[in-house]
């Protein structure tokens, strides 16, 4: 390999991701509660329109400050856009010790404003499934590659590491440790109006920020 990485970890995480994808029936997306209040939960394989589901939830529940992720990955574009939404909402992405964020889910986690990582996180370059691809398929892949790289950079991943991710084939995962991610500094900005525009474009409804009373001030509890 062109860069130093624990191969045992790579193969183990890749196996976890493959098995999880085989059993997945679509992401379970919804609201849950933790010590800080209402939180978002994303579990299972990410589907093409899941960023729309998340946008509508975030637009209508501005009190959400954390997202719990346990996913083997899925649709690359949706995963990248989840990362955008997590960043615009200022969310802290949490991957618990018994959870995994692989492939598209890892992009979403790195796109968040903050991260609390105890589980496994790894990713690879976007790719096209199947043997035959149209010019439109290839154009869509090119756009997805650019978007994934932009989300990783916005999340604070060093350019050299982004390049390594883009050279990692789909049968492997570039593992990103909690220590490495602790050094990432999110470069995005809070943008609730953009979340609301995405929610509206996806067919959801949301009360505009200017017309909605601000949520009560709370003090976040210590992480579980």
Structural overview:
- The strands form 2 sheets. Strands 1-2-3-4-6 form a 5-stranded mixed beta sheet. A 3-stranded mixed beta sheet has the order 5-7-8.
- The protein has helices spanning 7-23, 50-60, 76-88, 104-111, 135-154, 159-166, 178-182, 192-201, and strands at residues 28-34, 37-43, 66-70, 92-95, 100-102, 114-117, 120-123, 174-175.
- It is of the alpha/beta class and 224 residues long.
- The protein has one domain (7-198): 2-enoyl-CoA Hydratase, Chain A, domain 1 (Alpha-Beta Complex), CATH 3.90.226.
- The chain starts with 6 loop residues before the first helix and ends in a 23-residue tail after the last helix.
- Helix 2 packs across helix 8 (192-201), helix 3 packs parallel to helix 4 and helix 4 runs parallel beside helix 5.
- It has 8 helices and 8 strands, in the order αββαβαββαββααβαα.
């Amino acid at each position: 390999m062109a860069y130093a990485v624990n191969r045992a970890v790579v193969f183990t995480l890749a196996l976890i991701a493959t098995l999880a994808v085989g059993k997945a029936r679509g992401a379970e997306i919804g609201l849950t509660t933790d010590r800080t209040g209402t939180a978002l939960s994303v579990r299972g394989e990410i589907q093409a329109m899941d960023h729309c589901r998340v946008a509508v939830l975030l637009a209508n529940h501005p009190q959400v400050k954390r997202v719990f992720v346990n996913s083997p990955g899925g649709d690359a574009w949706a995963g990248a856009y989840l990362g955008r939404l997590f960043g615009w909402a200022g969310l802290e992405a949490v991957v618990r010790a018994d959870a995994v964020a692989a492939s598209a889910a890892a992009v979403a986690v790195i796109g968040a404003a903050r991260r609390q990582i105890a589980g496994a996180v790894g990713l690879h370059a976007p790719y096209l499934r199947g043997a035959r691809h149209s010019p439109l398929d290839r154009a869509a892949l090119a756009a997805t590659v650019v978007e994934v790289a932009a989300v990783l950079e916005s999340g604070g991943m060093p350019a050299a590491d982004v390049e390594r991710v883009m050279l990692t084939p789909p049968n492997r995962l570039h593992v990103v440790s909690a220590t490495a991610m602790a050094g990432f500094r999110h470069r995005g900005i809070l943008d609730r109006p953009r979340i609301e525009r995405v929610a509206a474009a996806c067919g959801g409804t949301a009360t505009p920020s200017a017309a909605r009373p601000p949520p009560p001030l709370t003090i976040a509890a210590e992480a579980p």
